[in-house]
Write a structure and sequence with these properties.
Six copies of one chain form a homohexamer. In chain A, helix 8 (about 200-205) crosses helix 12 (about 280-305). A five-stranded antiparallel sheet of chain A has the order 3-2-1-4-7. A two-stranded antiparallel ribbon of chain A has the order 5-6. With about 350 residues, chain A is of the alpha+beta class. The first copy, chain A, has twelve helices and eleven strands. In chain A, about 40% of the residues lie in helices and about 20% in strands. Chain A has helices at about 10-15, 65-75, 110-115, 125-135, 140-155, 155-160, 175-190, 200-205, 210-215, 225-245, 250-265, 280-305, and strands spanning about 25-35, 45-50, 55-60, 80-85, 85-90, 90, 95-100, 215, 225, 310-315, 320-325.
């Protein structure tokens, strides 16, 4: 993919200043896309284009050289654009002269996708392998088969989906990361709570949020899907689990308990749980979910911490700002085994 | 302690039937104690006496042979009583003929205390040793010294106090059990959250609820103390930690972070937190606290599960009834390492 | 069924007075049933027996002549008992001498069931016929077939189930009555809201609460079932509808919209809705549900209104007492066609 | 009204582009109006001018040729303005050269008012006639007279007022539309709830929101009036009804029940009800109010649905986005009478 | 009023013991009164009789010698009864042999009323005089006249009514006491808040709760009246003020502001305010109301403090128990003028 | 401090118009300060500069003549700047040519500070003297010494701190003003509530919010401090009081009660109270705090009332708009002594 001039990020483009007229080229995602009709009856496109560093709005009229291409690209597409800086109503609104759609699979450099959207801080391949290991650790064969069947049905979609649109792990691969992190926590905690059936709890952890792979659609510009709005991830996940459990001929009571974990994991009815958790496994999974969601907010705030600032911005999910500097080491360390 | 006739539990006494007049002897705790004045100006005692199997009210007038002894015994005392079954207003209200106070330390048989009040299901001695191990695992010497200083100040009181009056771990040694269980969970989870300073989180876990050893008083008939009502366990614990930290010459910032864990561990302002958790350690401790509190409710409901019942009573803390039967084993177990 | 002496209601039995020893016979429902073990290791039954006029507790020991029969009867059974008045702890607690189980189908006089439990004020047969008419009014054949399939699967259970355990239409046939009343309201309102697809709304009304036929079990002493506690009536109804829709080869989008009505009809997440209503039909059904629930509380309070009282007791569902006397006629009526 | 150049909507004006200097003419409403004083002591006007397609801010200094005219026009006036495009701080802020006030009654073309503000989708004349029919349908003469007296007192104001500033039916004639729609629903539902006095319920529906005709003032730029802020529409409506009822010599108990419907129709104290609904009529009216408010939100979202979008924006009153496409017809329609 | 045997309080009667059969005489209030019909068609009375020390239920059948007298007495009547102790279902339920109604005005000894119901701790005559003084202190003649007109209309009812049924000042003369206490506070605070019109605030304080004299009926056994249930004290007070203000020809704006104080004094919509306080006077009155309500709870808890107890029972209105012992004097007092 | 050209306020600067290029000079506060790194690795400053009339953002690159000076000034500094008007992205973003830091103590004219930030409407010197008088009025010597010790420790910081960042008394000297106003109210109210220990209540009023002097830092651009975020003003104030009380050898119970006032003054747990008020003094102080906070919102809205507007903007703390015009005088004033 020959590139002249070099690609600029949105932040770089905005830094070119207010004078207008400078040429630029960028690799961007179509975040919002709407076809509208002007007063004179002519159609035009109202777009939001962006990358990880920011975004801008852009109106493309029917006589633009890029109108046809962008109209066919649609929301979530990756586009390489060239144009000149312009402002409308005081906001950056470039005039585009060239545009081409780029397939995500053609982006040879992984860093390119990282520049386009936020990604999980952990390597997706490692997470995927670790997920497979947790699936394999489910001891009852039919239960393991049911878990595997859900992931087989979802395929790649599960691996790239976000875990949320705005609260925690709200980025590409976030659902995978959150699921694996919860599995690690369940692995660590189950020996401490012997009244919990480890096998069932682990299966519940792995499957609890699988409905989100359907609730959200698009990985570069994710939004709530039609099924997400009409059914919600709790019921979508329940249905996935039910189908897989019946296919795997899972014992009826085990299936009922597994479905119950999915139905109750949100913890409170007003947060979307269909019922309150009523088995030891369901209580544990809902509490680990809450714990890892909060810790995910902490981790993201630490990653994004500005160099000179002691505290993060106020984080809605934590209802406070987070102290982002590590504690001091103390004067020495002569004991301790933990 | 020679005993004729044999000691009956409150449940046994109630089972003697409504006819009245039967003689009985019991070992009981004075759960409620009030001195009142009758219309004729004479004082009388209004008592609630009970053991683990139940309780009954009992009025003792000034001319009773046990008046003086019971008046001096006071709330929380262990008393051995003899008397005859009687009813007042349709409720069991025995006439007592003999009474003697028994020192808790004189109860030779541990089962006797178990019959009087609910106890932690774990052996207190083992818990105490495990607690000492967690204290020793704190690597920074001053931090470890501060933790130790709080336990030194509280002494036995911490070891027998309940963790609550009504919600979770609300029984003798419950505070010790809850603290050790949380330490186990922190030990298990810290490797998964490297952004958390393990040392500080462990110290925070060990100390977070120490104010409860002052907030509640009495271990056989615990109630909120004057300081508990006027300051609350969050501030009482903060003050314990502050004093111990200054005595141990703990680094000022470490002490501030340790105090913050105590001040924020309740998780929400309306649950009594002074501030919202604003460090990685404080977020983790507050989430583990919530997790172990909920699992403690599960464990107690399982211990108390009636033989023939599939579900427990509705549990206020879980907002549902708990399914108390274990899941079925499934058809086989050919894989799994977890 | 020859009867000597004549059957007394619980209210009649209680009116026999406190002296004890009087003989009586009653037809009652076993409302609560538990097998317990006494201190001496012997089993005994702890029962609550009642009819529409009240109830009493009753302990039956292993040496009682009715022990075996009542142990096998279980919760919800109808029993004919004879015995003598007795009191325990000041409460009526008769000693039973004879007992026999009576099949509900053998109760020749409909008034007998009415005396046992509260019933819908409308004739169940008429309601059943009206329900069939509403099913037949669904115009799209596959949609009508799907609705019919759900009722075919549930059979009699739907016709006798209550609509709730405590709030509205909480009595035998209450679910049928509530469903038919809502269908009448939908029939009346749909012409006023042409943006609502009448066919889909009617199907949604008929099916929205069908999960309650599974959530509650027992019609004489109903309680929440295992599936009710683990899944809730919203998900149970969704599953019934989904299965029936697929069997009827209902168009996928129609099925999705029908499922959405069931999933959203509770109106608020904290009231148990899986998602908020997001189609015109779902909004209308959830509002009619709320309206008829409130009017059902009004109707029941009017039926139970005491003769001399202007206001009912405070009704929790209305958060006030209800004025139960009709308004005055006014001075004349010379206009109006309404 | 001769017009050169042709009148442009605000959207058209904004579409003229950022260059500035272009001449334009528009017919607009003065939405916000404030007289302020500059640092040099000179007065200037801070205005918001707009039509249905949008609005812009505009500062008019004392030396402007339109200063005197606009100062006397005030909030809610209709003005015809001419001027040139200009920008201030990046926002459209035209310089006005000519302005004239236009009486609403002089707008010969109904479409002109429609362009200025949002209107009810139903024809106001038809609604007015239908309202009169509902008034006439009230059978008790004094009750009918009381209803009529309220509308006589309010006159035109009731017919053009909005039903809200932001939630439902928040547009010109919205109050009339909402009232008539509720009357239709009451008409349809009363036969189903015979415990409801139809006459009283209909009178209550017609009058329940009449206080809003006083709570809001202005129909082109409505806002909360002084009396609206100090008393609220519930009490204002109660006072209107009380006065009219006494004038019509309405039976005291009927009047009390009619007043109660007005006082309780908001449904919950926190939504502004003075008391909870405590008569069958009041419960029904409050439920119909809630139902039609929600359906009004649905109807407006359907009217405003963008061509290419499956879902509306998130609607605060429904707490979700609305699916705006109609359901598919299905494969046939061979049955159904409903 | 000759009395043999001496009158016993309910507490005394209950202290006579469970044997039954003892004769007694008491002066009591009919707290609850209902005429019911037995299974045999005969009417009987279901009563609750009590005094300040307690109460008991009592069933009076048609063949009782006191049936006719008690039937005509009705709720709130004072009755002198004689009878014998009896128990029903384990609860005191005496058989009455004689009964006579006593007019409240015939109770020569003020202590007798004090024994029947709880009274304000302040002397009602003094409070009444102080109220008159505050009325006289309103400077604007028409405003003063309006205030006076409301008290003239209410007469004695205002002087004896409680200020609540359960929260604060919930006893005879409690409304008068609460009003005077608030007037004292307003008197003390107005000089500190010069932006508050003292005259208007004082009139608002005096009138704010006058609707409660109608909302509650009966001073010996107060309950919510029909008008209280259908309109609530806020609207009832508003109507009293409006009528009095128009009679006194009060300036329209002053009347509107006075009405606003009444309509907003509850402070929050969910506590029953019609609107939020929107004038300086209304904000101050609502805050003083809240302050004196809370202090009234404190005062009552102190009056009822048990001799040996450091803390009161938990007070729902304060959400805690109150420390009822005074603080220690300290070591000396050498300064201070305040 | 010679000044050419004359200093302009931010409002004046913005009024210079959009053309750009005009020279100006201003005295401003650095409200927000951040050092960032550009894409080319060079540092730049991102500032917000403002005075009481408004603010603007400003980017200062490393090659700017004012870079070094502003970098060392930091947040909260007062700077005298000169430059030329410029716009970036449609917002005022001047280019600065000169800058100098001005010590607050060097501002000879008090009006200058008033132009920079909002101040208490009362004279700080008078408030300070009045505070000293209230301290002196505390009668118990050790209690008075404890109060004095807290103010001695805080020094000037207490005198200039705001009482809040956004709700009430949120301006320079606001904490002093709020404290003195509450002391006046306590002085006025204590004689009316004799159950309140005046001495203790006054000490509690004076100290209740002293933790805010630490919770907020900076008086020209105040923000929450590290200790404010980690401990909150309730605990900070408690610690101040505890330390001072022990230093003054205050009686242990008096100190406990004084600490309790501080710990409970926020009134509700969700507003930050550590415990609910449980002594008469604590209840009174929390209610006066609430009262003066609300009246402070009223006073500020009246001070800021726009000339031509009858109502203020909607005030979040009052949940309504405030009527800002005084009530009419009425027709005369012939009585009243109040």
């Amino acid at each position: 993919m020959p590139e002249y001039p070099p690609l600029l990020s949105v932040r770089d483009v905005k830094a070119l200043g207010a004078a207008g007229g400078q040429a630029f080229a960028s690799l961007l995602v179509v975040r919002r896309f709407a076809t509208k009709t002007a007063g004179n009856g002519n159609p035009f496109l109202s777009l939001e284009l962006g990358d990880r560093s920011g975004s801008f709005s852009c109106t493309v009229f029917g006589d633009s050289p890029v109108f046809d291409l962008l109209r066919s690209a649609g929301e979530g597409a990756i586009v390489r654009v060239e144009g000149k800086i312009d402002y409308y109503q005081g906001k950056l609104s470039p005039r585009l002269a060239k545009a081409s759609v780029v397939e995500e699979s053609k982006l040879t450099d992984p860093a390119m996708v990282s520049n386009l959207v936020e990604n999980s801080p952990e390597d997706p391949k490692g997470l995927k392998a670790e997920l497979a290991g947790f699936v394999a650790s489910v001891a009852r064969p039919e239960l393991r088969a049911a878990v595997q069947a859900v992931f087989d049905e979802l395929g790649e979609v599960f691996l790239t989906a976000p875990a949320a649109l705005g609260m925690h792990h709200a980025y590409r691969h976030g659902l995978l990361e959150h699921t694996v992190r919860m599995a690690r926590a369940a692995q660590a905690l189950c020996p401490l709570y012997p009244e919990v059936d480890r096998d069932l709890a682990m299966a519940g952890v792995l499957l609890h949020d699988t409905g989100k792979a359907i609730e959200y659609e698009g990985t570069l510009a994710p939004r709530r899907s039609r099924r997400g709005l009409l059914q919600g991830h709790v019921v979508l996940g329940y249905q996935l689990v039910r189908k897989a459990g019946m296919k795997a001929r899972l014992d009826a009571e085990l299936l009922e308990r597994l479905e119950h974990i999915v139905l109750s994991h949100q913890g409170q009815l007003e947060w979307g749980a269909a019922v309150m958790a009523a088995t030891p496994e369901a209580v544990l999974v809902s509490m680990i979910d809450n714990l890892d969601a909060k810790m995910g907010m902490v981790q993201r705030a630490l990653r994004q911490a500005a160099a000179g600032e002691e505290f993060s911005e106020r984080l809605p999910g934590l209802e406070t700002a987070l102290l982002t500097r590590p504690p001091p080491p103390g004067t020495g360390a002569t004991a301790g085994s933990g």
